[in-house]
Design goal:
It comes from Bifidobacterium longum (strain NCC 2705). This is Probable amino acid transporter. InterPro entries: AA/rel_permease1 (IPR002293). Pfam families: AA_permease_2. 69% of the residues lie in helices and 1% in strands. It has 478 residues and is mostly helical. It has a single domain, classed as Amino acid/polyamine transporter I. The chain has a two-stranded antiparallel ribbon.
Amino acid sequence: MDQLVAESTPLKRTMRTFDLTMLGIGAIIGTGIFVLTGKGALTAGPALSVSFLLAAVCCGFAGLCYAEFAAMAPVSGSAYSYAYLAFGELIAFVIGWDLILEYALQAATVSAGWSGYFNKLLEGFGLHLPVELTAAYGTNPDVTTYFNLPGFVIVLIITWVLSIGINQTKRTNDVMVLIKLAIIVLFIACAVWYVKPSNWQPFSPYGVYTFQPGSTQPYGIVPAASIVFFSFIGFDAVSSSAEETINPNKTLPRGILLSLAVSTVLYIVMTMIMTGVVPYQDFAKYIDAPVAGVILETGMNWLAVIVNLGALIGMTTVMLVQLYGQSRICYAMSRDGLFPKFFGHVHEKYRTPFKGTWFFGLLTAFAGGFININVLFELVNIGTLSAFIIVSAGILWMRKTQPNAPRGFRAPGVPVTPILAIVFCFVLIAGLNWETWVRFAIWFGLGLIVYFGYSRKRSKLGLEQKAGADTKVAATED
C-alpha cells in the first residue's frame, strides 16, 4: 500500500467535494429517470419507488466500502486499484477488464437514448434528420435505420472535452448537472398537481418476484431493481478521480455518499409522481420516453421542450462520467503494465491520458453509431455488481490483514456493512436473465486469455518478480 500511495502522479489536482458530488450526480441521474422508469413501471408497478430504494441501499452499502478504499488508497483506477491492493494482480485485471466493458457499454447505450431525445427536440422546432441516420441498424423493426449520427457526434464532443483537461471537464459537468437538477425540480413542482392516488392501487401488483404466464422475463420489485440498478452506475467513477482530487482522503468519501443520497431522493420522488400521474400499465405506450409521456397526460406541452433539454443534458453528463472513468481505469492498468503503455501516455500540455481517452471515445462512438447495444445493457449491471462484490470483500480482507493501515474514512458497521453489500448484489444479480450470464461468462473468458497471453508477462509486478528470480539464480551460480 505504501508503494501505491507514494507514487507521484502527472495528473492535475483540481477536484473538490462539490465537483465530485456533481460528478456523481451527473453519472447517476440521467438514463434512470428519462428512459428506464418506463420499463421499470411495467415490471414493478407503482412499487418501482421501492425498487429504486432497494437498488440505492445496495449501492449505499457498496458506496461505504468504496469510500473507505478511496480514503485509504487515493489513486486512479477505482475498483481495479482496490482489488489490486486487496487481492493482487489477477483479480484486479478481471475487475478492470469488467469495468472497461461496463463503462463502454453504458456510454454507447446512453448515446442511443440521447439520440432519441435529440430527434424529438428537433421535431419540436420542425426539423428532421434523415430517418436512416437516427439510430443504429436494427434498433427499430418498423423503420430502416443504419447509423446513429447524433449519438456518434455527442460521444466525439465529450471525448474532446475530456481530452483537453480536467478543469474543462469539471466545469462543463458542474454547469450541466445544475441545469439538469433545476429542470427536474421544475418537472416535480408542475406534475405533482396531476397525481391521482388511485393510480397507486394496487401498489405492488407483481409482488417481490414472480413470472407472468407465457413470459420468460421476471416481474416484481426485485427484477425491477435489477433493471433500474443501471441508473445508479457511475458513482464508482467518482473514486477513479482520486489522483485529480484535492485532499482525496476526505473529499472522495463525501462526494461518493452525497451524490448517492441526493440521487436516491430524486429518483423516489420522481417515480412516485410519474406512476401517480400515469397508470403503470400505460407506460407501455411511452416505453422510450416515459417522462415525455407523463407531460403528454398532463397537457403541459410547454414543459415538453424543457424536459427534452433536461434529458439531453442528463444523458450527456452520464456519458461524460463513464468515458472519464474508463480512461482513468485504463491509465491505471497501463501504469501497472497490464495494458500497453499507449493507454498510460499523459499529454504534456493537457495532463490527461490523451491517447487512451480518444481510443475508447472513438470505439464507443462507433459502437453506439453502428450497433444496436440496447439488448446488452444488462451486461453493464452484472459487471458493476461483480465489481461491488469484489470491493466489499476487499474491505473484509483489508480489515483482517492490515487493521492498522491509515484510513481517512472507516466504513461503519464492518463486517456487517460489506456483507450486506455482497448479499444485496447477489440478490440483484439473481434478477437478471440467463442470457446476461452467458454473455458475461464469454467476456470473462476473453479477459483471461488477454491476461495470460499478454498482461501477465509484461506486468510491473511480474517483471519485478522475474528480476528478483534472476538475481537469485545469478547469486547461486556465483
